[in-house]
Amino acid sequence: MRRVGILGAGYMGLATGVAFAHRGFTVFAYDVNPRVRAALEAGRSPYHEKGLGALLREESRRGRFVVLDRVQDLAERAQVVFVCLPTPSKPGGKIDLAPLCTGVAELGRALRPGKGYRVVVVKSTVVPGTTQGVVEPLLRRSSHRSARELGVAFNPEFLSEGRMVHDTLHPQRIVLGASDPQAIRWLVALYRGFDAPIFELSPSAAELVKYASNAFLALKVSFANEIGRLTERLDGNVDEVMNAVGADPRIGREFLRAGPGFGGSCFRKDLRAMVARADELGVRFRSGENALAINADQMVHAIDLVRRTAGTLRNRTVTVLGLAFKAGTDDVRESRALPLVQALLKGGARVRLHDPEALSNFRSELGRLSGGSSRVSFCPSVEGALRGADLAVLQTDWPQYRRWPDRWTQQMRTPTLVDLRREISRAVRTRAGLRVVALGVSPDRPPNNSPGPAPGRTE
Questions:
Q1: In CATH terms, are 3-200 and 213-438 the same topology?
Q2: Is the pLDDT score of 452 beyond 50?
Q3: Does the structure show a pLDDT above 70 at 459?
Q4: What is the pLDDT of residues 146-175, one digit of tens each?
Q5: CATH number corresponding to 3-200
Q6: Where are the domains of the chain?
Q7: Could you give the residue numbers annotated as active site?
Q8: What residues have CB less than 8 Å from 183, skipping those under 6 apart?
Q9: Which of 53, 307, 326, 344 could tie 45 with a disulfide, CB 3.0–4.6 Å?
Q10: Angle at 370 between CA 364 and CA 374, to 5 degrees
């Protein structure tokens, strides 16, 4: 089993593919988007992700990562095919299975004339019951293959954008869900070189592991955000508080860093889907409901902090620094910058935007959600974004922002920054002559003044 297929070369699919290639497998990848295929064929990653482009080029040069133009070729060449297709949210919270089902049906038809045992592995995030209740029956109907000829399994991903290459090469655990013993044996053999504990579960239980993991991390973020609102009213700094809380090994520091709320392609979508699925099962998923409510409240709180600091937004020039949902990626899905910019525009502000990697993606997403606006400027440089600004808002914690050279302050009409990530230290703001209002910090306390390391990742 040295030939692996990837159906869907998005962020997760591409990272999965190059990881298997790096482990010595021959990987065949197909994506329905011809522009994605063209980029991959040229050895160029369509996404900004640390180390992903370099690893793609290396494995393409070695001939271990091969891009295909037809699903039929994928079905013919790969022994194990990982399905990495999107499962976006519907308005009511349920996941939209249409892209997944379309791809699975096409793959099934392509598998029909082939010989020999194959395994199809769902890696897309799907609610419990989907692999056995939807995907497997669809594959059986479209491929005309029995359980002796085709194994079906679920294998969730646990990747954090900004470090996806590391997470795929060095997973903390591997979860396999299948009722077919032969499929499990093939997947255990496939993952043997990854040096991580393997958990063998039923497909529904494996699907639940993915949702339970993201729900718990979202709860940690939400808890830190609520504590941050308290520290603003007290003589406190949320980083100092959560640093001490996270020193307890039963709790840990990861995902206890307060901010404007969680974003990205996973947490909100997965929580909404799990709440909806639990309701179908006659269970109320209160922890998920509460995390979503806290996250919505946190965005309102962050916008209110910006509004109060500005005094008024009407006819003010406000610069937003950081548009990606987190540093290290160009992904703007569910970025907190989107509702922030929409609120600034609604309040009558002129808005200037900067991000080192996500400017183009944000322009497209903002246009899709709100249409164009003559009061929005997309700026390739920080200096240009800050020129004449009445207020700046640091939204994404890109490392280059925390250095804040003096010339940036000099560009501003009013040298005031709302720091939603507490990135600007007391030493930097003093040196740069910058007034900083920080989320989660009492006005009487400076940000970044804790004696120990800051809490870990937010999302």
A1: yes
A2: no
A3: no
A4: 999 999 999 999 999 889 999 999 999 999
A5: 3.40.50.720
A6: 3-200, 213-438
A7: 266
A8: 119, 151, 152, 153
A9: 53
A10: 85
